[in-house]
Amino acid sequence: MEASDPMDFAYYDFVLTVPNEWRIITEKKSEYGRGQIAFLPPKDDKFSVDLLWENLDVYKSKGATVEAFIDNYFENLRKNRNIVDLETYKGELTKWEGHEMLYHEFKYTFKQMMRRGFTQHVVGIAIYDTHSNRFIISYAKIDPKKEAYENTARDIIRTFHCNCSESAPPTAPPAPNAAPSEAPQ
Ligand SMILES: [Zn+2]
After folding, report:
1. Which CATH superfamily hosts domain 6-162?
2. What percentage of residues in the chain have a pLDDT greater than 90?
3. How many angstroms separate the alpha carbon of residue 100 from the centre of ligand 1?
């Protein structure tokens, strides 16, 4: 086995593939409904791919769908007068049972009077999970002067999968003799 072979990380129905020498730090108050995990390369605490999840109800007020949420987020960046050179990218919307997932990237320069500006580049994936009622986001901030982890971060984030609808359902299954919701043809 090579040091950088991929390994599957699975936790609370989330699955991500990360290089096997990376470290995994779980915020200790994490639980199924909300929490935070950081994936860090060896010997470098300045870079991380973060995974956060929260109750979906909080986020639905910011966008009825995951695409509306991202559109609103981009719109707020666009309205911010301290933000210049904004570039945004939305990937294709992925849907599976109870899940909507949207890959995205954005880059901008933040400038404020009398202060030094900085450039931010974020790669991420946002998920509305109506099956487990969670908002999930995985993202990494790429340092434009040090883009060493850029492609690794994209690779990790793109492997994200939530299998809550394939494992035990969060709600009780219907009684065995319950009427089927759709009559057979
Ligand atoms: Zn799920």
Report:
1. Mog1/PsbP, alpha/beta/alpha sandwich (3.40.1000.10)
2. 75
3. 10
